Amino acid sequence: MQLLSYISSQTSYSEKSIQNTVELLNEDCTIPFIARYRKEKTGNLDEVEIGEIVALKEAFEALEKRKNTILKALEEQEVLTSELKNKVLHAKDLTTLEDIYLPYKKKRKTKAETARKNGLEPLAKIIMSQRADNLDYIASKYINDSVENEDKALEGARHIIAEWINERSDIRNLIRRELERFSTIETKVVKTKKDDENAQKFKDYFDWSENLSRIPSHRLLAILRAEKEGFIRVKITIDDDRVLEKIDRKLIKNNNECGAEIQLAIDDSYKRLLLPSLTTEAMNIAKEKADESAITVFKKNLEQLLLGAPLGEKRILALDPGFRTGCKVVCLNEQGELLHNTAIYPNAPQNKITEAAYTIEHLIKKYNIEAISIGNGTASRETERFIKNIGAAKTLEIFVVNEAGASIYSASKIARDEFPKEDVTVRGAVSIGRRLADPLAELVKIDPKSIGVGQYQHDVDQNQLKKSLDTVVQLCVNKVGVNVNTASASLLSYVSGIGPKLAENIVNHRNQHGVFKTRNDIKKVARLGGKAFEQSAGFLRIKQGSNPLDDSSVHPESYTLVKNIAKDLKLKTEDLIGNSKQLKEIKLNNYVTAEFGLPTLKDIVKELEKPGLDPREKAKAFSFDDNVKTIDDLRTGMVLPGIVNNITNFGCFVDVGIKESGLIHISNLSDTFVDDINKIVSLQQQVQVQVLEVDIKRKRIQLKLEK
């Protein structure tokens, strides 16, 4: 099977688009670069569509690699016939391939293998022919030192037949279809763990059953976590009698002694070999689907969080709130550099309100603070109320920032490298301030699964999770673009074509030689060759440089084209930028070439209208209800302001300004059917919610989205 036909069979993209995309990928082009600057070659495929081709390409390559391994093993066993080789080469998926290989796979010592060594395979073949009678007499001929009597001979022959049945792909596929359509997942509590305090969160699954094909991702992952922690037992069941009857009809042709022996072998094969293997396979498939669904939710959440509204380059005072240990305070300049840090104690038990207010007022004036960022953890509401009562702060915008993952950052190598002389509390407060200025630039420093916007992120395939989330981060970074003269190595490492090592080289070059004045200067960075420059240049920005195009997403390979367009309009390039009237008069068809088609030309004109435009919204200040401080203050029917802080398949969680987030179940998001929660709400969205139910004992809050 060829790669292009494999991808074509599973997508609706044209063969030319697939072929060109694969060629670009083979040339080490990245998804962001291909999607943004090679639209003519791909047929205008977007990042998601190119990502699908990447996944299918990797799946095909894994399949081909496995085929080669199997062919080599079959050759070594000297069993590779032309027919068998043809079957292997034409297998379209791993399941089919493994079924083909199963009879030849090296096994640990089995009952069938023992029976073969005892010379019972000819007897098994006689039984399978279903033409013999008087099997006791025939079996007596196979009695030897290892086979005591006729019954042992027949038993051994049945073990061989059971293995043959297990290795038949048609029988395996029959059971697979039954499992796929009709299997049930059943759970039972481990009696000795029933009253365990930690088991109570899984109480719903102490006695549960559900069709495996219809179980939601979050429920399956919860069940598997409960099983892993030893609180419940899980098994997959189907109607055994119906399946056995179908197998009988396939295999038993005569109602004689042979048929009776085959019936026994079928029962043995089904219970001992087929069912354990295929129920495990079915559970693995269900787990993979659940993982995929959970990772998709995480990807959507992460993308929304990374593309959260930045406040921009402002002088920020940030607070990491606390009670006993006080509030850590830092002052940052427009570039997020640390100017000052201290601690104040306005909350219990110290209650040094006057002293703390004086400190804040002094810092606001001394460092010309333009905005205040407060972490949303312990003592957040109390600290917010304290800040709002300070005279100098009343003229400033005050933001409560989600601090999930800040502690992870503060103890990381990245944080230690940035602030080697500061302790973790200072680093955490800096992160809270920088998140307000530019969420993307700060959050890329944290392992995505530690940011707190996932669903069972520690239970899914960790390699797949990391790969998927890294792709999301890369797409977000390149969508926004990066100021090459201020970006951290962490941020630069996600730029198309850069990576961690080149990112370090860029920062080192910047530290040694000063800022980059043009995009071409980037070529001077050690080990940054032509390919890396081609892939990265369009996503790197030079602010206030000598060439205005360097602060846009127009790729350097298009600079001559832009210059020619400006020349035809009798303008300088810089006079064309932002000149909507002249840009609308450009007859794009006049500039279409083999290299630059209409999609690229339209992108260039759009970028020239508003060069370097940040696609993100601007940050908006927000206030919680001052009357709600703890869960005890909530009452059914209350309408409150809140911020969406997590989205799952079953609803979204909303921060209403207390320790516990409330759940808006999917059924309470809209009066009509909701097929995609992200169409209704987005992460960090400011919403109005109604309190439906408060369970103080279980710390659970049910909410409804207000229109």
Automatic annotation (TrEMBL):
<dbReference type="InterPro" id="IPR010994">
    <property type="entry name" value="RuvA_2-like"/>
</dbReference>
<dbReference type="Pfam" id="PF09371">
    <property type="entry name" value="Tex_N"/>
</dbReference>
<dbReference type="Pfam" id="PF12836">
    <property type="entry name" value="HHH_3"/>
</dbReference>
<protein>
    <recommendedName>
        <fullName>S1 motif domain-containing protein</fullName>
    </recommendedName>
</protein>
<dbReference type="Pfam" id="PF22706">
    <property type="entry name" value="Tex_central_region"/>
</dbReference>
<dbReference type="InterPro" id="IPR012337">
    <property type="entry name" value="RNaseH-like_sf"/>
</dbReference>
<dbReference type="InterPro" id="IPR003029">
    <property type="entry name" value="S1_domain"/>
</dbReference>
<dbReference type="GO" id="GO:0005737">
    <property type="term" value="C:cytoplasm"/>
</dbReference>
<dbReference type="Pfam" id="PF00575">
    <property type="entry name" value="S1"/>
</dbReference>
<dbReference type="InterPro" id="IPR050437">
    <property type="entry name" value="Ribos_protein_bS1-like"/>
</dbReference>
<dbReference type="InterPro" id="IPR037027">
    <property type="entry name" value="YqgF/RNaseH-like_dom_sf"/>
</dbReference>
<dbReference type="Pfam" id="PF17674">
    <property type="entry name" value="HHH_9"/>
</dbReference>
<dbReference type="InterPro" id="IPR041692">
    <property type="entry name" value="HHH_9"/>
</dbReference>
<dbReference type="InterPro" id="IPR023319">
    <property type="entry name" value="Tex-like_HTH_dom_sf"/>
</dbReference>
<dbReference type="InterPro" id="IPR006641">
    <property type="entry name" value="YqgF/RNaseH-like_dom"/>
</dbReference>
<dbReference type="InterPro" id="IPR032639">
    <property type="entry name" value="Tex_YqgF"/>
</dbReference>
<feature type="domain" description="S1 motif">
    <location>
        <begin position="637"/>
        <end position="706"/>
    </location>
</feature>
<dbReference type="InterPro" id="IPR018974">
    <property type="entry name" value="Tex-like_N"/>
</dbReference>
<dbReference type="InterPro" id="IPR023323">
    <property type="entry name" value="Tex-like_dom_sf"/>
</dbReference>
<dbReference type="GO" id="GO:0006412">
    <property type="term" value="P:translation"/>
</dbReference>
<dbReference type="GO" id="GO:0003729">
    <property type="term" value="F:mRNA binding"/>
</dbReference>
<dbReference type="Pfam" id="PF16921">
    <property type="entry name" value="Tex_YqgF"/>
</dbReference>
<dbReference type="GO" id="GO:0006139">
    <property type="term" value="P:nucleobase-containing compound metabolic process"/>
</dbReference>
<dbReference type="GO" id="GO:0003735">
    <property type="term" value="F:structural constituent of ribosome"/>
</dbReference>
<dbReference type="InterPro" id="IPR055179">
    <property type="entry name" value="Tex-like_central_region"/>
</dbReference>
<dbReference type="InterPro" id="IPR012340">
    <property type="entry name" value="NA-bd_OB-fold"/>
</dbReference>
